[in-house]
């Protein structure tokens, strides 16, 4: 066919115009991936990956690390649980070595800790380049921020075997653990009950880039006639091509490095630290958040379905992030768990610098004792700087690992109860009147919520601790209205301080010397929301003290006791910095380079704000609530996190659950994702499904970008408004169970929502399941719907127990290890109740947690296959620290042999002390009803049962409903008339 000239020209013009228009109107919704480094663009990652390739390609690779004294015999010692030796690294062909002091600490908890330093840097015998003021040592203060306990040595640890090849140290509970420390090459095998579980340097990839002076190589002399471009070209033509330096020996990024136009001056030269850690027989590894990908980590060295890049930990403001990616996000917890049938182990790589982790799997176990296992997982950890510091956990259960990790880094702070309610946020509520109106509307539509949030626009010109004088004329009356309705306000405070005149916060910070410094030790100036800004250096104790003073009610005027804080942008986000953050050669308190502490930075700011909130007013002892975007190991002690700038898309809804599960198993379970999606406008079905999922996030907040349309729950048209409201009510009715789950997290580091492998570590078929979870120990199995037009779903069943539909009490016909189809019309969230559990609820609809404080409870008993069930309730005033003085109730419920009992699960240490205000008011709170699902048919005809408490017995009405259709038999007991805090029993015999 002949093409017509003019037509094709006009088509071209039309298409051009269309594409210009599209580029104008299509929101830029993809992360600028090129703004962030890939491994080959990060010198030390490239070198270490190449080193691994080089080593693994050799048939007889000998890692150049050995434990030997100068005389040739190993000089090692074990004293009070601490093994000491020096590792020698051979650094050249002549056999010269450098000394790397090694300590292996065996801790009472059964955890082992391996640290390796570098003698030359430790003794500060190195030279810095560029007149740098930076510290000379390898950073060794990560533990100051991350570790709060669990370091008591195991003085019973003993050497059980010693020869020329190495030593074996026996340690841990009942001496069941062993560390086999090999001398040449240096390596450690960690064993439990005689079986190797974790191996260090088994593949020989250990690498500590030792200090060396920069040798300036002379420029090759130029001969006449070679000058100028012409000469260069001629030379290139004539000379045979020089052989390329192998990447692991490439020195081009040793002394400086450029990315995106930013130069990193690297005054200490190359100093990376790397180690291979192998989990023989373990097919699954989990953890190392924050990444948007599956819970069971993928392989990272290419191949079908795998990633090409290692998992990266370098806290960054990634803006609109991509899913199913090992790319770094806002926070970093370098803690990994490995899982095989009936065994869980873990490692914690305590390092605050940029870190990359390669994961590969090998088919078949090398270990003859792990016959059941199908594969082994190899990991390769690479950090830019710092000492090597690794904790080893040998389990054997997921619960043990969570507990041992929590002993070191602390547990989730017991939260203020309101913070488990629903949070209503957007960027931005525009005025105090706007806030009041939203608050009234929520009431008008009977929608429960606890907190309304103010994003950056409430400030006067982005100056934190001020209010926009036109739009927020009367913040106190706003706070007052919220308080009258039992509600709270959260205001945002970021770490960048606007660098302008007449702003006391900046002049104070500068004059006191509390800002982060640039490489020349002057205050670092960068770009963020306010324009030119400086950053508080929250590593500095003096800065924390000063920060605390800014939150006093008479300084941050307009705030009240019901004001709490949101810390955003604390990676830190620096719009004009390399990878949207600070230059690595910036300096922090103690002259540590930003390079060393980058991943810890966000936590220090979160910590400063937490400190500020606990000390706002003398005598006011309320639990703080601070939300953070950036985090590190230990951040769980300080509040909640959320997964940052997601999108209003089904994919992002689906990605949130695995991300939140990963947070939970990495010890920071108080987490959530922006409900509705931050960017964009969710269609109503998506928004509705997101509320249904969000009702099961430990942190439950709706949030939206400044350009997104208003979407408060009452804005939805019917029937969606009612459906969303029902999801919110469900959250509130289960509040006692949520609070109890948080209590458990606070006690032993258990996740709040729990993946299948964590609850059922014997069921291999559930190890990769990451789209459903149990809520605490309630036995509630939830699978949110995350797909459009999906009105049924498959729920994986991990055991042989009875399962019932939460809403209908229908008995679900299940098979262990198989999925069962559950119907999920738009008004339904798939929730199953597992037999054998008892969980508390509060069924009287309420507007906020504060208004529910003294409501009666409902107890749901889901009778298990063996006719029994168990559960717990923890309750306190939800606000103060009085629980530390014994002002709480912790009850254990049990249904066994037709007897339902309640007794104290743990007794206050200060038992016998007078009841405080809350305890007194709580005295009359009771159980309004008890529902028993799966009740025996023999109860038919029973009209009442005896309840005994304090030696007195009275009768309570019982209504029995026999099984009908698919519905299981159930019984409802009327008001129990017993005190919550008293022991009681109900006899159903
Ligand atoms: C980035 C945060 O991720 C987002 O939640 C917030 O609304 C904006 N900063 C503005 O403060």
Keywords:
Glyco_hydro_b; about 1000 residues; 52 strands; signal; glycoprotein; ten-stranded antiparallel beta sheet; binds 1-deoxynojirimycin; globular; alpha+beta; Immunoglobulin-like
Question: What can you tell me about this protein's structure?
Answer:
The chain has 989 residues and is α+β, with helices and mostly antiparallel strands. It has a domain at 45-210 and 269-409: Immunoglobulin-like (Sandwich). It contains 17 helices and 52 strands. The strands form 9 sheets. Strands 6, 7, 8, 9, 10, 11, 14, 16, 19 and 20 form a 10-stranded antiparallel sheet that branches. A hairpin with a 5-residue loop joins strand 4 (97-106) and strand 5. The protein is globular. The model is unreliable at 1-29 and 226-237 (pLDDT under 50). Bound molecules: 1-deoxynojirimycin. 1-deoxynojirimycin is lined by residues 427, 455-456, 492, 568, 629, 644-645, 678, 703. Belongs to the glycosyl hydrolase 31 family. Its EC number is 3.2.1.20. Pathway: Glycan metabolism; N-glycan metabolism. It catalyses: Hydrolysis of terminal, non-reducing (1->4)-linked alpha-D-glucose residues with release of alpha-D-glucose.
Short recap of the structure:
This is alpha-glucosidase. With 989 residues, the protein is α+β, with helices and mostly antiparallel strands.
Shape: globular
CATH topology of one domain: Immunoglobulin-like
Class computed from helices, strands and strand pairing: alpha+beta
Q: Tell me about the biggest sheet?
A: 10 strands, antiparallel
Could you tell me which ligands this complex binds, including any ions or cofactors?
1-deoxynojirimycin
CATH superfamily of one domain: glycosyl hydrolase (family 31)
């Amino acid at each position: 066919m002949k093409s017509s000239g003019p037509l094709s020209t006009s088509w071209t013009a039309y298409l051009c115009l269309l594409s210009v228009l599209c580029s104008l109107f299509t929101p830029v919704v993809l992360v600028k991936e090129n703004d962030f480094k890939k491994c080959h663009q990060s010198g030390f990652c490239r070198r270490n990956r190449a080193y691994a390739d080089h080593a693994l390609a050799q048939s007889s690779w000998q890692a150049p690390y050995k434990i030997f004294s100068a005389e040739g015999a190993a000089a090692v010692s074990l004293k009070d649980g601490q093994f000491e030796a020096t590792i020698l690294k051979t650094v050249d062909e002549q056999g010269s070595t450098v000394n790397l002091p090694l300590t292996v600490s065996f801790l009472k908890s059964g955890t082992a800790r391996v640290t390796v330093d570098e003698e030359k840097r430790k003794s500060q015998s190195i030279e810095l380049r560029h007149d740098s003021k930076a510290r000379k040592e390898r950073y060794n203060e990560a533990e100051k921020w991350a570790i709060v306990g669990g370091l008591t040595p195991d003085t019973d640890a003993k050497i059980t075997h010693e020869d020329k090849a190495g030593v074996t140290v026996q340690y841990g509970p009942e001496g069941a653990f062993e560390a086999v420390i090999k001398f040449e090459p240096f390596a450690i095998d960690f064993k439990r009950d005689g079986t190797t579980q974790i191996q260090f340097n088994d593949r020989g990839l250990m690498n500590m880039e030792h200090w060396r002076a920069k040798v300036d190589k002379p420029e090759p002399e130029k001969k006449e006639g070679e000058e100028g471009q012409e000469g260069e070209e001629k030379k290139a033509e004539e000379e045979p091509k020089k052989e390329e330096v192998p990447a692991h020996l490439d020195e081009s990024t040793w002394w400086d490095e450029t990315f995106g136009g930013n130069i990193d001056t690297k005054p200490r030269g190359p100093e990376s630290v790397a180690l291979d850690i192998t989990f023989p027989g373990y097919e699954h590894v989990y953890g190392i958040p924050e990444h948007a990908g599956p819970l069971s980590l993928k392989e990272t060295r290419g191949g079908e379905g795998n990633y090409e890049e290692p998992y990266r930990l370098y806290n960054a403001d990634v803006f609109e992030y991509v899913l199913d990616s090992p790319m770094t996000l806002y926070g970093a917890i370098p803690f990994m768990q490995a899982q095989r049938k009936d065994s869980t182990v873990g490692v914690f790589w305590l390092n605050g610098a940029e870190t990359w982790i390669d994961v590969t799997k090998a088919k078949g176990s090398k270990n003859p004792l792990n016959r059941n296992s199908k594969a082994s997982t190899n990991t390769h950890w690479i950090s830019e700087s710092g000492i090597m510091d690794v904790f080893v956990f040998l389990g054997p259960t997921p619960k043990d690992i969570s507990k041992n990790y929590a002993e070191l880094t602390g547990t989730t702070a017991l939260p203020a109860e309101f913070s488990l309610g629903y949070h209503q946020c957007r960027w931005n509520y525009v005025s105090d009147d706007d806030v009041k109106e939203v608050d009234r509307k929520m009431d008008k539509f009977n929608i429960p919520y606890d907190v309304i949030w103010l994003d950056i626009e409430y400030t006067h010109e982005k100056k934190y601790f001020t209010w926009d004088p036109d739009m927020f004329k009367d913040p106190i009356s706003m706070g007052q209205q919220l308080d009258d309705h039992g509600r709270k306000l959260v205001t945002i405070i970021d770490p960048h301080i606007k660098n302008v005149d007449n702003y006391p916060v900046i002049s104070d910070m500068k004059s006191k010397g509390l800002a982060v410094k640039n490489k020349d030790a002057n205050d670092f100036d960068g770009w963020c929301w306010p324009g030119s800004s400086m950053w508080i250096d929250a590593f500095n104790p003096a800065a924390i003290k000063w920060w605390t003073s800014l939150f006093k009610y008479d300084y941050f005027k307009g705030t009240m006791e019901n004001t709490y804080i949101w810390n955003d942008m604390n990676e830190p986000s620096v719009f004009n910095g390399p990878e949207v953050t600070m230059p690595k050669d910036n300096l922090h308190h103690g002259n540590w380079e930003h390079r060393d502490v980058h991943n810890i930075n966000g936590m220090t700011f979160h910590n400063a704000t937490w400190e500020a909130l606990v000390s706002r007013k003398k005598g006011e002892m309320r639990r703080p609530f601070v939300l953070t975007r950036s985090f590190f190991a230990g951040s769980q002690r300080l509040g909640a996190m959320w997964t940052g700038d997601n999108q209003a898309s089904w994919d992002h809804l689906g990605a949130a659950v695995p991300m939140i599960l990963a947070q939970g198993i990495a010890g920071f379970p108080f987490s959530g994702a922006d409900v509705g999606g931050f960017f964009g406008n969710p269609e109503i079905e998506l928004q509705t499904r997101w509320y249904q999922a969000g009702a099961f996030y430990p942190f439950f907040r709706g949030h939206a970008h400044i350009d997104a349309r208003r979407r408060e729950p009452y804005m939805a048209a019917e029937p969606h408004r009612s459906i969303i409201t029902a999801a919110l009510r469900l959250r509130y009715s289960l509040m006692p169970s949520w609070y109890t789950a948080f209590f458990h997290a606070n006690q032993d580091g258990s996740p709040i929502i729990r993946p299948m492998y964590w609850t059922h570590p014997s069921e291999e078929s559930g190890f990769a399941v990451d789209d459903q979870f149990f809520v605490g120990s309630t036995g509630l199995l939830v699978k949110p719907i995350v797909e459009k037009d999906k009105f049924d779903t498959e729920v994986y069943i991990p055991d042989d127990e009875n399962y019932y539909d939460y809403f209908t009490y229908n008995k679900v016909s299940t098979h262990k290890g198989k999925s069962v189809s559950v119907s999920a019309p738009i008004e339904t969230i798939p929730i199953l109740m597992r037999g054998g559990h008892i969980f508390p609820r509060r069924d009287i609809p309420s507007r906020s947690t504060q208004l529910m404080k003294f409501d009666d409870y409902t107890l749901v008993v889901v009778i298990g296959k063996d006719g029994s069930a168990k559960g717990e309730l923890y309750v306190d005033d939800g606000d103060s620290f009085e629980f530390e003085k014994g002002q709480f109730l912790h009850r254990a419920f049990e249904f066994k042999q037709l007897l339902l009992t309640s007794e104290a699960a743990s007794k206050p240490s200060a038992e016998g002390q007078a009841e405080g205000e809350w305890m007194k008011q709580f005295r009359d709170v009771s159980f309004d009803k008890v529902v028993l699902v799966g009740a025996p048919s023999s109860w038919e005809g029973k009209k009442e049962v005896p309840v005994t408490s304090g030696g007195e017995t009275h009768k309570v009405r019982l209504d029995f409903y026999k099984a009908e259709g698919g519905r299981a038999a159930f019984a409802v007991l009327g008001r129990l008339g017993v005190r919550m805090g008293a022991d009681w029993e109900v006899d159903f015999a």
